[in-house]
């Protein structure tokens, strides 16, 4: 996935899929104490792990913290050294790049466009004894499709039977209503790794904080020692821990984003844009015009998926934000469409 590049000043960034509500007040209060920026970080994130363990109802020794989900995937691949891996397409390009960079043979399962890129149980048929690792995401980025609990269970069972590590990237799942029932945390077996992003879920993209939940603490230990990465900064650790104490933030975010996703999808469809179904805080859509470039000239950034396997030219992604933000980008796209229609007369 690539972001549109333009030298003009970007005033509105719809390419960030971080929660648009901003960080919780509890996190803001923590960061107001500038003294924490002078404190050396705890490389083990012990206090943060304890907070995450209580939040996720898992054991602290089964948690590994990092600066991003990409870093955690990298450390997992470095630590476990898979020889053959199975991923989906379209998907985040970082999965394939990390695997290839570490000498892994990668097979891509093409999600069917005619089924709105939904992942079905057919995917499990491609997992065999030679498959060392499977990486999937729910909701899928860039499509926004959730994996149903039934399909996820079938995939997890197939991985368990073939001694295959299953990595499920759930960085955006906590911004989905009733998200817990869709989590791979509930799948049985020691082979499950679940990735979560505090930064994206709690509106703190600039801080950078993610964590992995391992079904087996032995695998967590291997991954924790793998890779040469910088420790999570003290401000991110403390602000993240404070965010997890906010019991209403995610519920409020899910409620707002559900309504705003529906509104944005309906409005884009109204002006003639092909929008794909999504359960996430972002939308995938199609347009024949180079909208990323045209919007960038007007100070707006969206995602372009021209270089993503399974998509290509004409596919774009936009974050679900506030009602005012949705009205703004719909108006801008409608203006572009009208101007191009007038010029073609």
In short:
The protein has 345 residues and is of the alpha/beta class. It has helices at residues 25-31, 46-56, 69-80, 93-101, 149-161, 198-201, 217-224, 234-244, 249-270, 291-296, 323-344, and strands at 2-3, 12-13, 63-66, 84-89, 105-110, 133-137, 165-169, 192-197, 210-214, 274-275, 282-286, 300-301, 303-304, 315-319.
Descriptive notes:
The chain has 11 helices and 14 strands. Helix content is 36%, strand content 17%. It has a 7-stranded mixed sheet with strand order 3-9-8-7-6-4-5, sandwiched between helices. Strands 1-13-14-11-10 form a 5-stranded antiparallel sheet, covered by helices on one side. It has a two-stranded parallel sheet with strand order 2-12. It has 2 domains: 2-21 and 249-344, Aspartate Aminotransferase, domain 1 (Alpha-Beta Complex); 25-244, Type I PLP-dependent aspartate aminotransferase-like (Major domain) (Aspartate Aminotransferase, domain 2, 3-Layer(aba) Sandwich), CATH 3.40.640.10. It is globular and about 65 Å long. The protein has helices spanning 25-31, 46-56, 69-80, 93-101, 149-161, 198-201, 217-224, 234-244, 249-270, 291-296, 323-344; strands at residues 2-3, 12-13, 63-66, 84-89, 105-110, 133-137, 165-169, 192-197, 210-214, 274-275, 282-286, 300-301, 303-304, 315-319. Strand 6 (133-137), helix 5 (149-161) and strand 7 form a beta-alpha-beta unit. With 345 residues, the protein is α/β, with parallel strands linked by helices.
């Amino acid at each position: 996935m690539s972001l549109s590049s333009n030298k003009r000043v970007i005033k509105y960034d719809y390419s960030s899929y971080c929660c648009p509500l901003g960080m919780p007040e509890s996190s803001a209060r923590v960061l107001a104490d500038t003294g924490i920026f002078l404190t050396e970080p705890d490389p083990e994130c012990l206090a943060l792990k304890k907070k995450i363990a209580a939040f996720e109802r898992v054991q602290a020794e089964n948690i590994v913290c990092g600066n991003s989900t990409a870093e955690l995937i990298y450390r997992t691949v470095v630590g476990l050294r898979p020889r053959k891996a199975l991923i989906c397409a379209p998907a985040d390009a970082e999965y394939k790049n990390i695997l290839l960079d570490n000498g892994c043979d990668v097979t891509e399962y093409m999600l069917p466009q005619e089924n709105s890129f939904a992942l079905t149980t057919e995917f499990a048929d491609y997992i065999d004894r030679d498959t060392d690792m499977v990486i999937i995401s729910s909701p899928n980025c860039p499509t926004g499709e959730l994996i149903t609990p039934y399909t996820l269970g079938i995939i997890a069972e197939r991985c368990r039977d073939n001694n295959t590590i299953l990595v499920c990237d759930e960085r955006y799942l906590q911004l989905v209503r009733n998200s817990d029932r869709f989590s791979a945390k509930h799948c049985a077996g020691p082979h499950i790794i679940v990735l979560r992003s505090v930064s994206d879920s709690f509106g703190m993209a600039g801080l950078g904080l993610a964590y992995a939940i391992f079904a087996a603490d032995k695998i967590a230990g291997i991954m924790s020692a793998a890779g040469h990465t910088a420790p999570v900064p003290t401000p991110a650790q403390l602000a993240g821990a404070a965010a997890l104490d906010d019991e209403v933030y995610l519920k409020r975010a899910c409620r707002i984003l559900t309504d705003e996703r529906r509104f944005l999808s309906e409005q884009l469809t109204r002006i003639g844009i092909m929008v794909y179904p999504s359960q996430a805080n972002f939308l995938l859509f199609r347009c024949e015009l180079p909208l990323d470039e045209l919007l960038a000239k007007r100070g707006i950034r969206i995602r372009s998926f021209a270089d993503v396997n399974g998509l290509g030219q004409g596919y774009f992604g936009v974050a679900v934000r506030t009602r005012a933000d949705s009205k703004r980008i719909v108006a801008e796209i409608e203006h572009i469409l009208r101007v191009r229609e007038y010029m073609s007369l």
